[in-house]
């Protein structure tokens, strides 16, 4: 008698409510579980670059870039390190409570079941901030074990593991990951000096997550996790560290009246040191030290889906988020000695009500969404005192502000036969300025940027039309769009050193003085395309994003009129070819980013860059594979940053990895 086969793994990939019916009317792309599982030490932000139009503020990844420059956006709505796309994990917004950037080392791709990129504004269920779209990450809950270990160039190591166990009538998932490396020298060789050195990094984190039934048609999801990320920026006195703790509870009712309720809390701690350097780059010296940057966020959301009959979906709900944070820093140094201590920060919150109705009638589908939010900015402060005497130099308390903002979207689509779907949408969206933008001045090298407590929310109006075609193993999606971002926040150049300027003090020769300001608008028109073909062991895929983005403004920022927003490229493209059979696989990924500008005046050019990545896997035993990866295989020059005094910074050079992957 043959023994019974072992039971299959139980996989719960989407404990929340089903995907909204109206989202099929927008440009949606996905990163599936297989690609996420095979990522190894490749960060989540690098996987997102494969999708058309996804832009990180810097071309550097999270192993070498400054953490505060890691914002994410879509559709060329760049020019600011704060995110203009809304990133959520299991329904929880992920933007830093103080600065709006993303802490990418907080995520291990191997613990995700799927990443959905929903392009276009007007999203109503996760709060404001989705000016350009929403990136939704869903956690993986599966019984079994998987793990990866890798060793790479420049002393790099990475490891991750995930175990899913039956517990309490559900699935308990424990996961952990970590990586370290000696790093590379960020400054390009042509301008490098004796003080320049490699930029080591170390990061790690873990999560504990339980998903299971707690009643008839009632599911509970509980999560607790944390991360720690440390980096240096290639000079003495440029170390930084970010730590985070997160917890969330979500209840999902799956009866005739489907519903969900979510509550979460987030804690962030950040510190960062900044350095200057002499003209010969022989010695570095500290210029500022953010010794304590605490951020806190608390939020909730509820959604109800009443049964209105076949072909109709109605969503009704509410959510809110409270954010508070500050930056305590030694803001100026003279001859290596701190002279001024600064505190800046405040609180912001928003809460809203939303509704969405989607109706399908034969080949036609119509959808409308609406939302209204109440926002507040309170307790804003900027204080400076002399370190030696304690004498107060600046003591500003900014007036509390509040207001109401709408979000809306109308969309329609029609199915033509079995192969073609046409869709269109128009939408409104908005983003609240971050506490960092409102209250904290800062310096980057010889450049200085003043804060602006009077910044108003950014506002988006947009429209798009698209078509999706599929037949057999082939798919093609095309989307044309036009967006107008009103009151965009940008760092506007107002003067050059040497000189003393309001809000920042003295700026040396070669440095620029800027202030965060609301411009009149940014106009963007563009085209996105994504295609895929599968046949047997082969998969071919490609994406293309074309965007003409232009600043339209006057007044103090009139010099920017007609220019491109900083850090936005007119073209981004990617292509992937993959072969897989009997556990063996080989893949190549090509990425191209067009020319962009470092600064608002379009004087500092970031040249176009094309990189090639490769990955392969070979089975050694049941569930065990040998893996090999190459990042930037051709060692292409990728300029990630440029300063007004001629210093250029590069992104990751060629990196080779060899490892083992286990899945049982």
Q: What do you see in this structure?
A:
With 664 residues, this protein is mainly beta. It has one domain: Beta Barrel (Maltoporin, Chain A). Helices cover 2% and strands 61% of the residues. The protein is built from 3 helices and 42 strands. The protein has a 22-stranded antiparallel barrel. Strand 10 (144-152) and strand 11 form a beta hairpin. It is globular. The two termini are 25 Å apart.
Question: Would you summarize the structure shown here?
Answer:
This protein is about 0% helix and about 60% strand. The chain is mainly β and about 675 residues long.
Annotate the secondary structure layout:
Layout lengths: L10 E2 L15 E4 L1 H5 L6 H5 L5 E3 L15 E3 L11 E4 L2 E2 L18 E8 L13 E7 L1 E2 L1 E9 L3 E12 L2 E12 L19 E15 L2 E14 L8 E14 L4 E20 L6 E22 L6 E23 L2 E25 L2 E23 L5 E6 L3 E16 L3 E12 L3 H5 L2 E3 L2 E4 L7 E14 L2 E13 L2 E8 L2 E3 L3 E3 L4 E7 L2 E15 L2 E15 L18 E11 L2 E10 L2 E2 L7 E2 L2 E13 L2 E8 L7 E4 L5 E3 L4 E9 L1
Parallel strand pairs: 5-8, 25-31
Antiparallel strand pairs: 1-9, 2-7, 3-4, 5-6, 7-8, 10-11, 10-42, 11-12, 12-13, 13-14, 14-15, 15-16, 16-17, 17-18, 18-19, 19-20, 20-21, 20-22, 22-23, 23-26, 24-25, 26-27, 27-32, 28-31, 29-30, 32-33, 33-34, 34-35, 35-38, 36-37, 38-39, 39-42, 40-41
What are the defining features of this structure?
Plug_dom; transmembrane beta strand; 664 residues; five-stranded mixed beta sheet; transport; disordered N terminus; 42 strands; mainly beta; 22-stranded antiparallel barrel; Beta-barrel_TonB; Maltoporin, Chain A; membrane
